[in-house]
Design brief:
The structure holds 2 protein chains of 2 kinds. By secondary structure, chain A is mostly helical. Chain A has 6 helices and no strands. The model of chain A has no long low-confidence stretch (mean pLDDT about 95). Chain B is of the alpha/beta class. In chain B, strand 6 and strand 7 form a beta hairpin. Classes of the chains: A mainly alpha, B alpha/beta. The structure holds adenosine-5'-triphosphate and magnesium ion.
Amino acid sequence: MRKNYERALKALQDEVLVMASMVERSISLSIEALKKRDLELARQIIAEDENINQKRFDIEEQCVELIATQQPMAGDLRVIIAILNMLVDLERIGDHSEGIAKIAIMIGDEPPIKPLIDLPRMAEKACQMLRESMDAFVNRDVPLAKKICDDDEEVDALYEQVFRELLIIMAENPKTIGRATRLIWVAHNLERSADRITNICERVVFIATGHMEDIGASKY
Amino acid sequence: MNQVSMVTVNNKNNANVQPEGEARLRMENVNLYYGEFHAVKDISLDISSSSITAIIGPSGCGKSSLLRLFNRMNDLIPSARIEGLVEFDGVDIYQPGIDVVELRKRVGMVFQKPNPFPMSIYDNVCFGPRRHGIRNKRALDDIVEKSLIQAALWDEVKDKLDQSGLSISGGQQQRLCIARVLAVEPEVILMDEPCSALDPIATLKIEDLMRTLSASYTIVIVTHNMQQAARVSDMTAFLMVGDDRAGMLVEYGQTSEIFTNPKNKKTEDYITGRFG
Ligand SMILES: Nc1ncnc2c1ncn2[C@@H]1O[C@H](COP(=O)(O)OP(=O)(O)OP(=O)(O)O)[C@@H](O)[C@H]1O
Ligand SMILES: [Mg+2]
C-alpha cells in the first residue's frame, strides 16, 4: 500500500539525517578553526552554511509537498510537523557554528589568553548530543531523547566554568577583556546549540507519543 | 461552539473515549444479524447532542448497518435481527409500542445518492410536512423557504420552485434532500455518504452546511472520505471487520485525537492509508 508515499516519507527523514551531519561537521570544524587559528577553514564554514540553509529550504519544501499532495495523517503527520520544527533548530545550530567561525576570524592572530580545553569539550558534547538525537529520531527512542536532554546539564556546567574562568582572567588583566569576551561568545553559541538539540529531542518525543512536553528546561 | 472538548474514558479495555455529558443517542452492546450473518458485533457508543460524529472504516465493515440502527431503517430488511440496547434521549427505540414513523421524523436520514422525488422542488420539501398533516399554504410556504435557506439552497432555486427536483444539479439535489429532511424538524440527521456523488465544491458546501447545522442538530455521518471526517466531525468512530467478518468498533474518540494520535495500531494503519 502507498509504496511511493512510504518511500517519500523515508527519503524525507534521510534528508534530515544528512542535514544533521552537515550541522555536526560545522560545529566541530568551527572549533577546530578556532583552536588551530585556521582562518581558511573558518571562511569555508561560513560559506558552507549557505548549503545548510539551502538544505533546510529543500526539506521544508518536501514537507509542504507531502502535506499538500498526500494528506498525511496521524503518525505520518506528526513526523512531518516535527521535522518542520527540527529544521529550524538545525539551521540555527548551523548559524551558531558560523558565528564561531566569524569569531575565529575576528580573533585572527591575537595572542591566546588561555589554552582552549573546555570549549572543544563543549563542542564535542554538543556533537555527541546531536548524533544521539538523530539516533533517537530514527528509532523513535523516547528514553534516549530524554537522556540527551539531561546531558544538556553537562554543557551548561562547562559553560558556567568557562564563563567564570574568563571573568577571572579579565579581572586580573583588563587588557584581555576584548579577547575573553569573544571566547564567551563562542561558549554562548555552543550552549545555545545544545539547547536547540534538546528542542529536537522534544520533537522526537512528540513523534513517538503525540505529546508535546518541555523536557528538562535549560538553565540558560 | 460545537466542538466536543470534554471527554472521559469510560471503557477500560479498549481505546474508546466517549463524549462527556448527556448522550443523545446511545448504543450498548448492540449486535446486528442479517439471517445467520453477524454484521455488527457488540458495539457500544454514545453520541452527544449538537455534534457531528463520523463513522469511518473499510467497505463492508457495517457502517451503513450501524447508522440504520439509529432510526430503525434495518426494520425494512426482513432478515435483520438486533440484540442490545439503542436509546434516543434515554428511550429504548426498539421496545414495543415505539412509533417508528415518529422516530424517523425525529431521526431523519440523507442517503448516498441524491434521491429527490419526481415532483417539484416545492413539493419535495413539503412532502414530509404534508404527510404530518400540514395543509395551510402559508405555513407550507414558510417551511419551504426556511428549509431551503437552512440547506443553503434557497438563493439557487427560489425562482424555480415549481421545477422538477430532478432538474437541478447533483449537489443541489443533495441539498434539496437535506432540506426535505429539515422540513420535518428532526433532531438528529443521519447521513450515509452524502457527498460521494458530488464534486469537490458541492462537497465542501455540504460540509459547511453540516457545520452550521450542527449547532442545532445532532449529526451522524458515514463517509469513505477520511479528510471529510477530519474536516467536519467532532468525534470519529472507526469500524473494521474482525476475523469472524463481523463489524466491530476499533476506536472511538475525538476527531482531533483520532487523526493526530490514534491509540490503536489498526486505526493508525487505516487512516494513514496502510491498509483498507
Ligand atoms: N440487506 C442485507 N442483507 C444481507 N447482508 C447485508 C445487507 N446489508 C448489508 N449486508 C452485509 O453486512 C455487511 C455490512 O454492510 P454495510 O452495508 O453496513 O457496510 P458498509 O460499511 O456500509 O460498506 P460500504 O462502505 O461499502 O457502504 C456486509 O458484509 C454486507 O454484505
Ligand atoms: Mg455503506
